[in-house]
Amino acid sequence: QVQLVESGGGLVQAGGSLRLSCAASGRTFSSYVVGWFRQAPGKEREFVALINWSGGSTYYADSVKGRFTISRDSAKNTVYLQMNSLKPEDTAVYYCNAEKPGHDNYWGQGTQVTVSS
Fold first, then answer.
1. Pick from 36, 34, 15, 45: which is nearest to 73 by CA?
2. Measured distance between the N- and C-terminal CA atoms of the chain, rounded to whole angstroms
3. Bridge-based pairing state of the strands 111-116 and 10-13
4. Collapsing DSSP states into helix, strand and coil, what is residue 67?
5. 103: Cβ contacts below 8 Å, ≥ 6 apart
6. Which of 6, 20, 51, 92 is positioned for an S-S bond with 108, CB 3.0–4.6 A?
7. For residue 86, what are the β-bridge partners?
8. What does the angle CA 48 – CA 81 – CA 28 come to, to the nearest 5 degrees?
9. Residues 17/8, Cβ–Cβ less than 8 Å
């Protein structure tokens, strides 16, 4: 069993930055693909970014390319999402997800990000 705990959300003005963290307990992220998703009010949950823990390859939604960076810290078993040049449309609850393809899939409780114009 893996528990995911997100942190780092908050209120920021447009153009500002935030860094989200996703810490895992109960098991390491080894062999997992760890991603960030977000859900705005009245909208479906959407993919933001992911990182392949083993190889470090990353993928981003077009809407955040060039502004967001996903990274990992193996020693801390933590994944980060650095969000720069934030826009009001980035406002959402951000969720961390860890998946071992064909096996396990875990979600965190979410952290609110609000970007004011």
1. 34
2. 40
3. parallel
4. coil
5. none
6. 6
7. none
8. 100
9. no
Q: Encode the chain (117 residues) as per-residue pLDDT tens digits.
A: 889 999 999 999 999 999 999 999 888 888 899 999 999 999 999 999 999 988 889 999 999 999 999 999 999 999 999 999 999 999 999 999 999 988 889 999 999 999 999
Run of H or E residues at 58: strand 58-60
Q: Do you know the residue count of the chain?
A: 117
* Tokens (6 digits) for 84: 């720069």
Q: Provide the sign of the torsion angle of the four alpha carbons 102, 103, 109, 113, taken in this order.
A: negative
Q: Choose among 18, 16, 13: nearest CA to 38.
A: 18
